[in-house]
Amino acid sequence: MSIATTLGHAGRIARRELRGGLGAFRIFLLCLALGVMAIAAVGTVRASIEDGLEREGAVILGGDAEMRFTYRFASEEEYAWMRGAADRVSEIADFRSMVVVTRDGAEERGLTQLKAVDTVYPLEGEVGLDPPMPLHEALKGSAQYPGVVIHSVLVDRLGLDVGEVVRFGTKDFVLSAVLVDEPDASSAGFALGPRSIVFREDLRDSGLLTPGTLFESHYRLDFPDGTDLETMRREAVGLFRNAGMRWTDARNGAPGVQEFVERIGAFLVLVGLAGLAVGGVGISASVRAYLGGKTATIATLRTLGADRSTIFATYLIQIAVLTAIGVTAGVILGAAVPLALSPIIEASLPVPIALSVQWAALAEAAFYGTLTALIFALWPLARTEDVRAATLFRDGGRGGAFLPRARYLVVIAALTAALVGLAAWLSGIPTLALWSAAGIAGALAVLVLASMALRAAARYAARKGVGRGRPALRWALAAIGGPREEAASVILSLGLGLTVLAAVGQIDRNLRNAIQSDLPDVAPSYFFVDIQNDQLPGFLDRLENDPQVSQVETAPMLRGVITQINGQPAREVAGDHWVIQGDRGITYSATKPDNVDMADGEWWPEDYSGPPLVSFAAEEAAEMGIGIGDRITLNILGRDIAAEISSLRVVDFSNAGIGFILSMNPSALAGAPHTHIATVYASEQSEAQILRDLASAYPNITAIRVRDAIDNVARILGGLAAATSWGAGATLLTGFIVLIGAAAAGERARVYEAAVLKTLGASRGRILGSFALRSVLLGGAAGLVALAAGAAGGWGVLTYVMESDFSLVWGSALTIILGGITATLVAGLWFAWRPLAARPARVLRSAD
Amino acid sequence: MADPILSLRDARLTLDGNAGPVDILHGITMDVTRGETLGLIGPSGSGKSSLLMLMGGLERATGGEVKALGADLTAMDEDQLARFRRDHMGVVFQSFHLIPTMTALENVATPLELAGHRDAFDRAAAELQAVGLGHRADHYPSQMSGGEQQRVALARAAAPRPDLLLADEPTGNLDGSNGEAIMELLFGLRDRHGATLVLVTHAPELAKRCDRVVRLRDGRVDSEEAALRAAE
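ok -> structure tokens follow
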């Protein structure tokens, strides 16, 4: 028979079969639509944010392009190039500082990220102030004081009122307005303190922005219309990159945000794929149940002369139609839900977003959904070939091979490879995508094995007499260990979602414990930065005589950029390693500090004055593929210094102490203006007094309270964990739907079982108890397996990726197990009422 | 007449169908004496299986009175009926109705466990042995033939030594030789344990083995043929 004839027959039969309605496929459609919807919605939001960032690139950046320098302003040559290329240039200095307010003789301080601007700032967009007024008017201040605007978070924290006088360094400013909207906020990097804005000229006699101050200068450029940004970038980078210049332009105005959105979006899509995999379990179960009910039909068709391919095509066409319906519904919902929620989404995101229908994202979700449906439906579909005409006359039993024919396995493998490959390619983070796919496949395999082990254990327990004399327990064991596949359905459907949740929970709680509980025990109380050379003796004197201070460490500090390694651009040697991504702190020392452990090589002699030498952090050097004898070129304050790596040190960043990747011999940095950094270890109750004394004596010094910084980091971690948990929650919801599907599919069997048990004399309470018990056992087992798999995943991530310690967090663990039990109990008992209410006679006679 | 073990007075059964109420049984009045073997015969749809279900408390009469061992089944709730069956009745169905998730041994042990017998599994094993299935104790129903499944069902019904054995066409799904073997076993069990047996059947030769036969037609007792076996 030709393919066309086969398909013609199959199409007609399929159409007739589908006339019966889609009721049998509710779970199939729900699982598929939900999985596709989640991925389509995440993709829509991600693409809309990227659209927004692109459209508003110039506003986010604050100009068509930005040239950024660390620790210095632009040189004359650099500034001249900017003036020549751009219509307008705006110069901004950005650094950490302290804002001080004095009330009733007492001082209160807050860490702030101070932006010192010129009169043309902002080149693009508008600064939002409360009360509304132009920024320039606000910064003019009053007759007595220059003006400042401060972000509402800091205003609230310090309880400031507009009109109140605050101090930066040694200079007073009047708070003219509250900063509500900073158009270029997204382009700024990580900040420990909320924003304050002043005119740079007003800082002149503040004691801030002195030589050695750790600051960044940003030059915003407004090009003539029609300027090609790429040409400009190439020219500027060619001229000034080796002098430590960094370029950003409006094509990607907030690269940090863009990257973050891309990564979190891709990550959530991967979590969504886990959800789709759980949905796949439901799809597979639905198709198996549907085809199980069609055995007689298939046998009849075989009797009437339909060959295997006609039968297979008949049901493949049905599955294809259903897949199209499910995917279409998912895509429509995935596009519609973000659009419907756009006011909430737009209000809750700190970046511009242009929510619209994102065809590429929808196509991606549709593709994932289609492939998933086919992968999971093919296995049961292939079993239609095993149905023989004789089934009509004799019960076919449960025979047949476990695996479908080889050709189907090849197709399933090819589709899976296509799905994983597509996810790896589209996510932009192929390594994570491949690991995720391996994780999902591994978790599914573990869950399948666990369900088999559970069934074997239940059978073994029953054989050993466990539950004899306790019928409810014995029936539960029989139901779990018996030939039905309830155990596999429950453990697979719930297990994957719970596994992801367990892993997220364990990682999140372990990290938080490490940061919030363990770290403060070993971390210093304060970092002090910008300590001038002449301030250092007095600074140390105040602390070393204080019995509440257990330890003070100081180090000279400069910042510089690694531009070359062995004469080649650093990127070509070290790729995108974080050490060469931006500017790094650099220190110097004539002698090896006491707390430094050498990994390789020797510290230079105390009186060394030869060519520059550098001692490099051993672990990072190994990651970058460099070692002793290699030469690195550092750009410090616009000057290139080439130094040879003479030794490697062990640098421990885990205790938040002072740790420098680069330490040089003193003569290499002779004459470079610099300040000192200090860490102070003190009792918690003395922290406030130390800050008051030092900040009063040295107003230019910035103090960073480590506890605040830790809280900041913990908050960010909490946000990431929450986003992941929502993703895992969607997976769990799909799992719950699959579970409901499994419970619904098992209802008929339970009705029958309850009827027989009632006939044999079992009360409804006893039957209900048995149903509840099997739910508890299965849910508990699913939770336990998920916890083991999730904890193993969490351990792997913490140990190998985050290089942190792992210990099982029991609160999260118990939640997972209880969650598993509750979900199965709810689903199980929901479908227990009908079996309990049914009259045995009617059930048993209808089964005859 | 000795005390009836089953007594029906004007027992009626009406079920709700899609086209409205359907009268299945119209005022059945009859007694079954202890130790008797009663055959219920009649054409399909005559109500014989429904009558058996009423006798077993598996279906609740919508009118009249159904008493078993002096207890009014119509006054009992579901759980009371279940406990009553546990203590006094064994039921055998045409489609066996074994619990598919349990092995043969577990199926037979279940009513014994429900009755609180500590030696439920030993007795179940002995009962399986008695029906010739000692070697199939660990098999699931799906791994057994129809004849074997019905033998397990017989063992399960007989194991608690019920006062009353109710059998609904127990050979209806079996071929001739298997059906014959099952009937031999059924009557053998009844003779051994001295239970009262009510048997629904289409087969005249089975009916002939009963002490008394009641023929039903359209939900009513059509005729009663007493003591056929004795007469032969």
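The mean pLDDT of chain A is 83.
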